[in-house]
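Instructor's aside before we start: the two examples that follow are unrelated to each other. I chose them only because their records fit on one page, so don't look for a connection. First example below.
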Amino acid sequence: MEVTTIVLAHSRITAQFAQSCLCESIRFAIRLVKQPTYMANTSLTPEQLEKLIDLSFSAKTRAHAPYSKFRVGACLLTQSGEFITGCNVENSSYGLSICAERTALVKAVSEGHTNFRAIAVSSDLVDNHISPCGACRQFISEFGLMDIYLMKPDRTYIKTDTDALLPFRFTGEQLDGKKIQLEEQ
């Protein structure tokens, strides 16, 4: 069997998390590289972390998931210390569904918050920690570096951050970057 090595530069991703994201039929050898030095100092108190986790699970109970039966909850901790929750809301026109992470972020922004310390995401998955979809990873990254707690129902979690979850994300800085000049037609 061929073994592929993945180098996860600029990340604190754990081997357990990486392996939980891989297809069962493919085995990867994972070599973790030096941790970046630019990680945010967003350590939470034990009380803040417990509340973040509790509210994430509580939000999950309000999910509207009649089609997939896949309930997800999220809770954000703002820089000012407020907790804001969200759950996934499905729609029969699947493309109109919204994930828990984006629900929480949209609620937070609509309430005037744009700076966050952490987000916890929970689901009913027993064998794997929940992992945000690609759209949510990009959406979370819009708001800068924060800690991300990926939960299992038994309250175990993987702690990661924005850089590890989406290391080469598209940012607003790229919109302001130098571009080629297009000829007018």
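Example two begins here.
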Amino acid sequence: MVTIFNEIFGWTFVFMAGKTIAHILASCMAFLEKDAEVTNIEIRLSNFLITSLCIVNFILVMMNGSTVTTESSKTAFLCYKLQEHFPPKSDERLEILILAKQVRANNVKITAADFFEINRNTLCGILATTTTYVIVVLQFNGIF
């Protein structure tokens, strides 16, 4: 099921990450322009708000991907704990054991078309990449 989900939505996550990075960079570049007119403040503010919405949207997706991975690891633990409540040779206990083995063997990871995992670490990577890019642009523009 997870591989089907990753195949269907993987490229959507890739484009969502690209769109978020592009919005962050465009917003930073708009605020760092030297030739800013006072009339462009509304445009800059709306650009910043749209960028904020893109970031919040992508953060929610990343948090959900991280939660799916965490909860799948808890499922195996709960299966092993639940086995204690059934007789040793019962069919229910055997089914729960099989489920626990399946869950442990198939780690659930939400990915963006198998390029990167969708989890909390992705946000740090995006922020590091965009911060590096903004610093390089600032140095080339002679602001610092």
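The two ends are 50 Å apart (CA to CA).
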